[in-house]
Each structure stands twice: as structure tokens, then as C-alpha cells.
Amino acid sequence: MLPHKNNNNIHTSISISNIITLLFLYLYLCLSIIPLTSSLNSDGLSLLALKAAIDLDPTGILTSWSDSVPTPCNWEGVSCTTNNDRVTQLTLPSKSLSGYLPSELGQLTELTSLILHNNNFSKTIPSSLFNATNKLIVLDLSHNSLSGPLPLSFTSLKSLIHCDLSSNFLNGSIPDSLTELTALTGTLNLSFNSFSGGIPASLGNLPVEVSLDLRDNNLTGEIPQVGSLLNQGPTAFSGNPGLCGFPLRDLCPDGERVPDRLPEDPNPNPIAIQTGSAQDQKQRSGLLVVVVVVLVSLGAVVVLMSVLVLRRRKRLNEGEEEGGFEKRKVESEVLGSGEEQKGRFVVLDEGFGLELEDLLRASAYVVGKSRSGIVYKVVGVGKGLVPAGTAVAVRRLSEGDDGGLRFKEFEYEVEGIGRVRHPNVVPLRAYYYASDEKLLITDFIRNGSLHTVLHGGPSDSLPPLSWPARLKIAQGTARGLMYIHEFSGRKYVHGNIKSTKILLDDDLHPYISGFGLTRLGLGMSKSTTTFTHRRQNSNQSIVTSAMSSKVAASSKNYMAPELRVTGAKFTQKCDVYSFGIVLLELLTGRLPDLGPENDQKELESFVRIAFREEQPLSEIIDPALLPEVNAKKQVVAAFHVALNCTELDPELRPKMRTVSESLDHIKIQ
């Protein structure tokens, strides 16, 4: 039995030896493979999970994403910190990527910017995405195919400033807890989704400066009349048939619908009587009586105006009138078809006390000429509550080759323009329409244009602008242009921003003029009308014409590069570019076209090259600013804003809200 026992020991030792050998071989193979993957840090592995979740990458943007490197910081669309190679930004907009968002993205704990708009990401937003990424400042997942409700963890983003989740298929209710996004001061855009239920009253606790957009969802009920919700325009709530209450025209069941002459425009009239949401039958009857009285009164005013115009026309034909605002032809007939009216004078502002007869009788002086027509300063003689010497600006519009807009088209556009009221936009007070004469009446801003103040002109009487004055002009202009862009869902654009369109009052408060002329289609044909006024100063007219020619020659330099192609269309990003050129003008004191002495360089390229070559600031800025040495950091910050606005790629230009906020952050020391 002893030999048999020894044989068993031999077999046992051989078996153990084989197992140990196999184990070492397995460990060797594992160790020879694992380092190839584990050399990539944890952020890189999280991004590779995103790559694996993407089914389609038609542009090949993710080709550089490989596990053969230790860090993802050189991958396309990825930005990192400078000290520890952590991912801070993931930017892959408009790449036609298809797939879903993996939960591993929530492990990017240093991520501050996640921009994936205009792709085709689907499925739900993983709840773990926001568990650890609480340093996010910018979140843009708009224009995808994401579905489902907002995850509860969404409100953990305590650093979030800008959030755009628009144009997806998100549903469910809007969480009450959105107000826990305590840093939110930019945009909260949830439009064009399928959110349902009511609007939480807690949203009124959001900061006033937040731009809220809840358009085109399935929201229902009354809009809460609390806090910052009262500061939102009707556009923020339009496209929700079940919503009612201010600022919408659809009042809730215990109210009445506010009448509107332009039902297709979602914005209320500039002059409106606001009524409470709870009124009894007696109050509603009283309102009806007031409306009837107003309509009858308006009818009487129209009849009276017609009589006055006919009398005026007769006096003109008989040659009895001396001087005044000479008219070629004034008509007051109303066509039986109702499609067009002639000789109609319409006041848009109830505080505007001048009538057509006052304008005809007043003294008029040419103060500007452009392709859209001639601008006159008209000084009234005083009547009733209107003091003598009251001045308004009257723009006499040129006619295009097509003979101009018919009355209904003209009325629709002009009354839409008249609704835009902002402290930094010249208000439209009234207009006149006839088949061969169209006038726009606005406030007269007496200190002339920014162009004249910066570069001189016939009324050059102001000292050089200080830095605080220039910053004030830039900030005010940006606010006005932002308001135009955000006023309506029709995506208003100005279309002709330049320094001649920015007017200054006695306090150097800026006003944007000329808004709406591109909507009227009156900016492309050169005026052939000559207007002679016997009281006009001929020397002033000659100088003004010369200045207009000089300005027109450089107007193309305000034009965004994408507009310099035949058939291009104006967009809000074109306005942003033009504003950037105006801002560079303010900072450098130079014209947009630097002239033959600078090889016909454009101002934008001159400044961009100067910053790239790190030239001294003293060689770039307006010499008048050199004594203000304490403003150097502020001036440089403004330059960066201007260069962002004038990026060649319109996708890289910020929205005017971002521009305005950036300028407002620049404080005078």
C-alpha cells in the first residue's frame, strides 16, 4: 500500500504545478492587455461611454476619441483644466450625432459647460447626469429628440446660469423646485416641448433678469401673477392654448378678451387698459360702454381729420399757404373695397398731441438723407397742450421699384413696429399713409448721432467722449437691441445697425433709430425725391449730403460677412456683428473702413490682428481715452466682447442677451 500512496502524492504535486502555471499565464495575459485601457483617466473613460452610446457620427468628430492616450484633453470638442487634466467643457453642437446620453457623463465632476444642441440624441435624460456635475454653468441640449420628464436631480445644479432644453420631446410637469437653481440669471428655455399642467407660482421667485421661455407646450391654467413672471412678455407663454391671464390676450374665464387689431401678432397694443382677472358683471358692462364710446369718438376723429385734410388740400390748390411742410399730394378718400386707404394719419401714442395739420403748418429742416428717404426736423407752432417749439422727426419714405406696400401691409408692419417700446429705442409716435406719400413720425433726439460725435460732422459741438460715457452708450444700445430681438416670436431684426443709427440726447443716453425700415422693404432703393423748403439752410443741406455719401460708402463694413453674398437673409446674428463693429468704433474712435492709408483694411481685422500680435493698447484705442489709465481692464474686457460679436462664423457669435449681460458686468471703478 505504501507505493500506491507515493504515486498519489506525485500526481497531486503535478496537478498543483499545472494549476499554478496556468494561473501565472492568465495573469500575464491580463496584465499585457489592461494597461492599454487603464492608462486613460476616469474622465476619458466617461467620454468613451458617450462615444459607445452614439450610433451615428457622420462628420467623424469622434474619430480622435481613443483609449490610447492618458487624457482626453486633446480630443475634438473637449476642453480641460490646466492643472489636473479634468474635463471642464464638452462642446459638440450641430454634428448630426445620433444616440443617447449615458449615465457615465454624470461622473465628469468638473464639467462647467455641456453643449450638445442641434443633434439627434434620444431617450430620457439620465437622472445620474446631474448627481455629481453640480458645477455646470451652461447646459444646452436644445434641438434634439430627448423625451421623458426632467430628472429630480436637475435642481442640484446650483451653479447653472444658462439652460436651454428647447425643441425636444420632454414631458411631465414643470417642477416647483426649479427655483432651487439659485445661480440662474441667464436663460431658462423649455419651449417647444410637451410639458403639461400649470405654471408653478414658485417660478415668480426666479431673478428678474432670467429670460423665461415656455412657448409651445401643453401648459394650462392661469399664469401666476407673482414676482418675475409679471416681467415676462407674452412671447414667453404663447403657443399654449390652455393658458390664460396677463400678459396674454386670452383672459381667464371670469375676464374678457382684450381686442386687438392684429390678431396674428402675439404682442399687445402699446396702449392698453389692463384689467384685473376678477370683475363682476357690472364692471364688464361698464367696460363695454367705454369701448363703444371710444369707438364712436374715433369715428368722429376720422371724419374730422378727413374734413381738415380736404380743406388743407383745397388751400394748397389755391396757393394760399406760405412755407410750411410742403406736400406733393394729400388724399383722404377711403376705397370702397376696404383693401387700401389713402391719406390716413394714425397716432400710435395717446400722449402724442400733434395732428396732421400741425405737421403741415410747422417749420421743417432737413437733418438727414439715406436710401430709405429724407429725415426732417419739424418744429410745431404750439396748440392746446403742445408747447410751441415742440420738435419731432419726420421720415419721408422712399418708394421701391414695386410702388411700395399696400395700406393693409403697411399698417400691419408699422403698427407692429409701434409696439416696440424701450428706453433705448426711438419710439414711433404716428404715421401717415397715402398712395404716393408715407411718413413716419418719431421723437427728435437733439444731440445727433454717435457717428457725428465720434467722427465729426455739421453739428460737431461735443467734446471727446469719456470712457464712462462710451460704456454707457454701449450698454444702453445693447439693451435696446436685445429688447428688439426678444420682443416677438417673429424674430425681429434691426437690419441696419451702425453708428449713424444710434442717436444721443443731452445726457448722452443712446437711442436706436431706424428700426423697422428693413421690414418695410424701404432700405434698398435710392431716393429720387427732392424736397425744397424755403426756410431750409442750403449750406446745412450740402454738408449733410456730403456726410451721407461718406457714411454710405462705409456702410458695407457694418455688414456681416454672410450678408455679402447674393440672396443672403438677415438674421439676429447679423445685428450682433453690426453691433460689434459699432463697439469697436466706440473703443478705437476709428471708422469701420480705415481708408487708403491703412490699405483699405476693415476695423474688425485691424483690431483682431493687433490683439493676436499683442500690440500695445495705446496703439489701438482712441487717443482720447489714453489719459484714463484706470480703465484699462474695462476697455480690454469691452474689446473681447466686440471681437466675440464679430466672429466670421455666425454660430460662434453670442446672442444679444449675452452681449448685454457681458457689458453690464463691466463696472466703472
Report a brief summary of the structure.
The chain has 669 residues and is α/β, with parallel strands linked by helices.
Would you kindly provide a written description of the structure presented here, covering whatever features stand out?
The protein is α/β, with parallel strands linked by helices. About 30% of the residues lie in helices and about 15% in strands. It has twelve helices and 23 strands. Helix 9 (about 570-590) packs antiparallel against helix 11 (about 630-645).
Protein traits:
669 residues; alpha/beta; seven-stranded mixed beta sheet; 12 helices
Q: What's the story with the biggest beta sheet? A: 7 strands, mixed
Cα end-to-end separation: 103 Å
Strand elements, count: 23
What's the shape? Answer: globular
State the share of residues found in helices, binned by percent. Answer: 25-40%
Strand order across the largest sheet: 2-3-5-7-9-11-13
Total count of helical runs of at least 4 residues:
12
- Percent in strands: 5-15%
Radius of gyration: 33 Å
What assembly state would you assign to the polypeptide chains in this entry? single chain
Q: Report mean pLDDT, rounded to a whole number.
A: 74
Low-confidence stretches: 1-5, 30-37, 255-341, 522-554
Question: How does the helix and strand content classify structurally?
Answer: alpha/beta
List the helices and strands and how they pair.
Blueprint: H1 2-38, H2 42-52, E1 54-56, E2 78-80, E3 87-91, E4 98-100, E5 113-115, E6 120-122, E7 138-140, E8 147-148, E9 162-164, E10 169-173, E11 187-189, E12 194-197, E13 211-213, E14 218-222, E15 242-244, H3 281-318, E16 344-347, H4 356-361, E17 363-370, E18 373-379, E19 391-397, H5 407-418, E20 428-434, E21 437-443, H6 450-455, H7 467-487, E22 502-504, E23 510-512, H8 538-554, H9 572-588, H10 603-612, H11 632-645, H12 656-664
Parallel strand pairs: 3-5, 4-6, 5-7, 7-9, 8-10, 9-11, 10-12, 11-13, 12-14, 14-15
Antiparallel strand pairs: 1-4, 2-3, 16-20, 17-18, 18-19, 19-21, 20-21, 22-23
Helix pairs in contact: 7-9, 7-12, 9-11
